[in-house]
Design goal:
The complex is a heterodimer of chains A (347) and B (137).
Chain A lengths: L5 H15 L3 E8 L7 E9 L2 E9 L10 H13 L7 E5 L2 H4 L3 E5 L20 H15 L4 H4 L11 H16 L5 H12 L9 E3 L8 E2 L8 E2 L6 E3 L1 H8 L11 E2 L3 E2 H12 L5 H28 L5 H22 L13
Antiparallel strand pairs in A: 1-2, 2-3, 3-5, 4-5, 6-9, 7-8, 10-11
Chain B lengths: L4 H16 L6 H40 L7 H8 L8 H25 L1 H17 L5
The chains are: A alpha+beta (347), B mainly alpha (137).
Amino acid sequence: MPAPHDDIATRLPSYLSDRWSAAVVLEHVEQIPGGASRETYRLKLSVDGESRGIILRRDPPSSLIDTERSLEYRTYEAAFRAGIPVPEPLLLEEDPAVLERPFSLMAEVTGCESAIANLALEPFAAVRDTIARRKWTLLGELTRHDTKDLGLPTFMTTPAHPARHELDYWAGVIRADALSPQPVAEAAIRWLERHLPEPSGRLCLVHGDYRSGNFLYNAAGEIPALLDWEMAHIGDPLEDLAWSLDPLWGWPDQHLAGGLLPRAEAIALWEAASGLTVDRAAFRWWQVFASLKGLAIWISSSEDFANGTTKEPILAIAGWLMTDRQNRILVDRLRPDSPHEHTEPLL
Amino acid sequence: MIPRARQALADLAGRLGGRIAPTVSDPYAAVDSGLVSMLMTMLAEELEAGVAKRLTDGEALKALFQSAAAAPDAAARSAFTASVPSSLTLTEVSAWLDGGMTLLIDLHEWAEANDAAMNREIWAFLAEHTTRHAFPL
């Protein structure tokens, strides 16, 4: 049985030699664990004799998140141009003839970690609080970039009503992909329909999956790169903030956002960096929405595992374990006499 | 035949995760082995308790439906209340419960607008249901 990256080793060097008009030799390739939406590989290339670290992301046969890879790649380009910390995008190839499925290349950001569990270990434990504060400061700063200056409207939809747009999309995902009836999700959708906020009037680049694990950090307490922009879109600034604070990311600790900071402190950092004040009623809506969107992703991954061509175990675990947890979060958020075992009362 | 299926599956999961995965040199394959081990542990629990949990859900749904006579579509709920799964396989019990859950969604929507007490009862059921199916991981 061929290794999953045999085709990369045999085909990529000659392809890159043509694209870059350079002598390219593949020195090392390994698949990076945890890439549920794209297959991710770490490559070491010699380009005209110079060693370069490269990250290759390839569409999998099935994915946790069904997204347009060109939108993701162009988001990296826009962010990189604007000085937002992201890996440098190098190349997008959508012709499946090259490596069987579309792929992109980015420069490797070295000397970093992404696993949040490592923040408990030295040398990172000493800068854990610095990294935590930087996480929400960066998110606030992200809202200050004008979407037109970033060039986003040339490849992203500008929604007239961001909340309406997102709810319609993710409710649609749940109804298309659910393998069984979803009474909690349906109750949440009805609640969101009844409490739909008016557009805030401020639009920004929404990362779409801003959480612990989707950024690189180093021992100096810096966050040199934000990763996994596959769900990026133009939307409401509160969307990313609510997603980053979902109880799932700190599970089972319900007091620290993303396992890092008290929620109130994270919100204060975001407000200071964005120059925005959180509208409590609107934020309440985005908190419930964040949990529903999570549930939609986990339901969709169940469907991928059941009916897709790949049998990545992460799809089944996410579709099962995370669905259970996200359902409990939503029940805890929405039941009239909630004891708030898993969530803080809605702000 | 392995008469103690849950124990066998859990033991195999432990062997895969504890003995085999740590010796795998390829990082991706090592993580993959760990995930498969975790999934096997979850499947062991489901194999043992999946039918029982769903039958408990079904009985709780029947009690809920019996107190909702005033809501629309009472005949469909009565039919579910009078029904049992066509067999006790996990597949058949799941299909039977899915029918009840579909009726619950409609009842819940009605209760939200018309019956606050029923709405609370349904949320209490959903809280018990989601807790019952939670994995202790």
